[in-house]
Structure to design on (421 residues):
């Protein structure tokens, strides 16, 4: 029995209707931007394997660092113990994060990082003797798949089966309409009881790579800060250079109280996430009573191997070559936009840093759009991994992508769009 047959026998794949799904493609090797299947076919990974891969697959620098760490310490319980990779990672990250971020809480994925931030926000106010349990988020938000993260996200196909179990979260208009968003936020603040405002800074990923201005977000955050409401920046997708700066919040004057990190944190090597917070939040959990502590944890919290991979990935990101690659990708996107701008099927084109989104005219939109699966398969047949979000084609490549590889991605998309006119 081959790998495909064995997969079909055992595996339940994510975000997939297994009854009608195509057979999974067996990938046996990753090299740079390329994924290689068991027949030797190659696919340019133009979406960084769900936005996690920064520097290319099987990067030798990260692999060498992980191998060395594996021979020293693979894991240790993180309650009552510590280790150098965790401390060193925090030290290195702190140089890139807003200056008010003082403490780091480890977990294993983006949803957990968000869940932790939400729990911290609620308990922060309880520890201070205030009962604030409401949250405000943006229309179209996606923050993950755990119950708290789903509650903070927009009601959608992902959360529909669980809608009766989700807690209250008010979603204000998407900030492209700045005045509507500001007015709605002020109305909610007047009602009272808001623990925190949570947002994906500058770019909403799963909603279709929807983008808005840093200045608008700054205004929304300032309103919250003046009202004594915590701000949670969900940088799970936008972090580590995707928007042109190391973190999207680096483009904003206002400073968030909590930041959620994952995906690119380890360069796509190992599951790892971190929730950072201010000293003021951390201090609210200090006391003589255990009940006041943040009683949350995961078995693999602060895993040394994951931390080592993250350190190596950050070191690669800091290199001049990588920073130049980020700028070059952004510039190439700008040129490509001008090239295809007049194609009739295009409804909108938008870009922030290395993220390029092409929204197509369609009778159906959203994740379940029939257009998504057809485009996905057509692109795969041409050796390019692009996974459209409904009627939105997006490119979010590893920073190591070669000019000729990026041009192939552009050409495949351009030819497809011209056929659809």
């Amino acid at each position: 029995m081959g790998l495909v047959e064995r997969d079909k026998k055992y595996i339940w794949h994510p975000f997939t209707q297994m009854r009608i799904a195509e057979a999974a493609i067996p990938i046996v090797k990753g090299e740079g931007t390329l994924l290689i299947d068991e027949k030797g076919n190659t696919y340019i990974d133009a979406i960084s394997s769900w936005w996690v891969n920064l520097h290319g697959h099987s990067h030798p620098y990260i692999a060498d660092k992980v191998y060395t760490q594996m021979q020293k310490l693979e894991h240790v319980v993180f309650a009552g113990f510590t280790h150098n990779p965790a401390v060193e990672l925090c030290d290195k990250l702190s140089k890139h994060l807003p200056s008010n971020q003082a403490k780091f809480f480890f977990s294993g994925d983006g949803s957990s990082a968000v869940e932790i931030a939400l729990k911290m926000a609620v308990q922060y106010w309880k520890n201070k003797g205030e009962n604030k349990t409401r949250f405000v988020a943006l229309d179209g938000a996606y923050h993950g798949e755990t119950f708290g993260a789903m509650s903070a996200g927009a009601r959608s196909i992902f959360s529909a089966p669980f809608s009766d179990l989700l807690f209250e979260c008010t979603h204000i208009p998407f900030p492209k309409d700045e005045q509507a968003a500001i007015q709605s936020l002020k109305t909610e603040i007047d009602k009272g009881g808001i623990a925190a405002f949570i947002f994906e800074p500058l770019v909403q990923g799963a909603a279709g790579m929807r983008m808005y201005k840093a200045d608008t977000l700054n205004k929304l955050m300032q309103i919250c800060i003046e009202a004594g409401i915590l701000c949670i920046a969900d940088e799970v997708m936008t972090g580590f250079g995707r928007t042109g700066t190391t973190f999207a919040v680096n483009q904003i004057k206002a400073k968030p109280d909590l930041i959620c990190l994952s995906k690119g944190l380890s360069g796509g090597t190992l599951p790892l996430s971190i929730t950072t917070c201010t000293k003021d939040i951390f201090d609210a959990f200090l006391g003589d009573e255990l009940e006041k502590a943040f009683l949350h944890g995961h078995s693999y919290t602060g895993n040394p191997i994951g931390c080592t991979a993250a350190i190596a990935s950050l070191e690669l990101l800091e290199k001049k070559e990588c920073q130049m690659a980020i700028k070059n990708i952004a510039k190439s996107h700008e040129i490509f936009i001008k090239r295809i701008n007049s194609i009739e099927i295009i409804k909108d084109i938008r870009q922030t840093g290395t993220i390029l989104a092409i929204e197509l005219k369609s009778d159906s939109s959203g994740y379940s759009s029939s257009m998504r699966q057809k485009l996905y398969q057509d692109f795969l047949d041409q050796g390019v991994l692009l996974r459209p979000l409904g009627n939105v084609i997006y490119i979010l490549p590893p920073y190591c992508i070669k000019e000729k590889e990026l041009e192939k991605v552009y050409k495949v998309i351009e030819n497809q769009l011209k056929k659809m006119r």
About this structure: The chain is about 35% helix and 15% strand. The chain has two domains: 3-58+320-419, 63-317. The CA atoms of residues 85 and 307 lie 5 Å apart. The chain has a mean pLDDT of 96.
